[in-house]
Design brief:
single chain; five-stranded antiparallel sheet; 4 helices; elongated; alpha+beta; Thiol Ester Dehydrase, Chain A; 25% helix
Length: 134
């Protein structure tokens, strides 16, 4: 069962191939994500990962790992505070802020951060429901 104050961590990274697949699925083919020559002319100097591809890690974790199967995603806020790069180690950190056992809901702080430096790339908050885990 999820409890207030509980923390769950999940390590991940993306390849350029995964970024290209995300672009194909979503139609977001902005060259900042796909074209190294173009990206070299920008403030980032190299291609960056789509912000929503990073945010998709939240969905993966909620639906399969924490709290897991049966979780219904009700709400998510996200602020993209720093770019993410391919082949870089990241960590998703989930901190349970509030639990409403009667409604089987939890409010969870969601952060993606660099594994090496701990600097946040995406910050947000989610509301999830799970009748067997909350």
């Amino acid at each position: 069962m999820i409890e207030q104050g509980q923390i769950y961590r999940h390590d991940f990274k993306f390849t350029q191939e995964e970024v290209a697949l995300f672009a194909q699925v979503t139609g977001d083919k902005n060259p900042i994500h796909l074209d190294a020559e173009y990206a070299a002319t920008t403030m980032f100097k190299v291609p960056i990962v789509h912000g929503f591809l990073g945010g998709a890690i939240f969905s993966k974790v909620f639906g399969t790992l924490f709290p897991g199967e049966g979780t219904i995603y009700l709400k998510q806020s996200m602020a993209f505070v720093k770019p993410m790069y391919v082949d870089t180690d990241y960590e998703a950190v989930f901190t349970v802020i509030e639990v409403n056992k009667e409604k089987h809901r939890a409010t969870v702080e969601t952060i993606l951060q660099g594994k090496k430096d701990g600097e946040a790339t995406v910050k947000g908050e989610a509301t999830v429901m799970n009748t067997s885990a909350i």
